[in-house]
Write a structure and sequence with these properties.
Keywords: Hydrolase. This protein has eight helices and eight strands. 32% of the residues lie in helices and 15% in strands. It has helices at residues 64-73, 94-109, 123-134, 151-157, 163-168, 176-182, 207-219, 245-254, and strands at 18-21, 29-33, 46-49, 77-80, 117-121, 141-145, 194-199, 224-229. Strands 1-2-4-3-5-6-7-8 form an eight-stranded mixed β-sheet, sandwiched between helices. It has one domain (5-254): Alpha/Beta hydrolase fold, catalytic domain (Rossmann fold, 3-Layer(aba) Sandwich). The chain is α/β, with parallel strands linked by helices. The relative contact order is 0.15.
Length: 257
């Protein structure tokens, strides 16, 4: 593993097998990565939702190493793009509408049967948890890697310098209805079995956020499991070369084994 944990964000990977479109906006697309020919695997589709605090400067490219590694393990993968803040249509409600549209459309676009697994990192983890709560189309399960699981708390902590306010158009007292709709911590229980993986050394999204979410989930009987990694930080969770990677794949396997 590189000494720089952020090196994974720019690591080169092979191009996707193809790109599919789930809407008319230029960012309503997903890169498809398929298992190697003859792999003999029958794993379910994984829809990967990237992070970057919902901001336009971060796109799906930075999660390419994770998506490519999952395909090598035998998973068909849809590396999802969506409208983000700082561009037309991004933020509330467009970002959320894109997740709903994509998860509903991608199995058919890829000619795959059965509900997918939804895997998200950071802000993508937030969107995955949120989708599990609203669930207009079923998912087999959710893997949330260092998710922003509590938007009101993330606003209070000013994560990434106003990222939540940019997403929702203000703070909890400015647009309370949006926080009610968009915050997964207020919409428990989610409908899908959920595995959260979070590093104790995470300086981007505090692990306490996942601890509180998992504790609330247990109180209402929601199917949520938290795996804490004491030696991991934020970006190790999307790095197939990191010591955190086995915990990510184990969480994924647990949802279909």
């Amino acid at each position: 593993m590189s000494a720089d944990p952020r090196a994974v964000l720019t690591r080169a990977v092979p191009p996707p097998d193809r790109t599919v479109r789930y809407g008319q906006h230029p960012d309503q697309i997903a890169d498809v990565r398929l298992p190697p020919n003859g792999s003999g695997r029958t794993f379910p589709l994984v829809v990967v939702v990237h992070g970057g605090f919902w901001r336009a400067q971060w796109d799906r490219a930075h999660i390419g190493p994770l998506a490519a590694a999952l395909a090598r393990l035998g998973y068909p993968v849809a590396q999802l793009e969506y409208r983000r803040t700082g561009q037309p249509g991004g933020g509330w409600p467009g970002t959320f509408a894109d997740i709903v549209a994509a998860v509903g459309a991608l199995p058919g676009l890829m000619a795959l049967d059965g509900p997918p697994i939804l895997l998200g990192h950071s802000a993508g983890g937030h969107l995955a948890l949120w989708y599990s709560a609203v669930a207009p189309a079923p998912v087999r399960g959710v893997v949330a890697l260092a998710p922003v699981a509590d938007l009101a708390e993330a606003y209070r902590l000013d994560l990434d310098g106003g990222a939540v306010a940019a997403l929702l158009g203000g703070g909890p007292t400015d647009v309370p209805d949006r926080y009610t709709e968009a915050d997964p911590s207020g919409r428990l229980p989610g409908h899908a079995p959920t595995v959260i993986v979070h590093g104790a050394l995470d300086r981007n999204v505090p692990i306490e956020m996942s601890r509180r979410y998992a504790a609330m989930a247990r109180q209402v009987g929601a199917p949520v499991t938290l795996h804490e990694l004491p030696e991991s930080e934020h970006f190790a969770l999307i790095d197939p070369e990191s010591a955190a990677w086995p915990a990510v794949t184990a969480g994924l396997h647990s949802l279909h084994s």
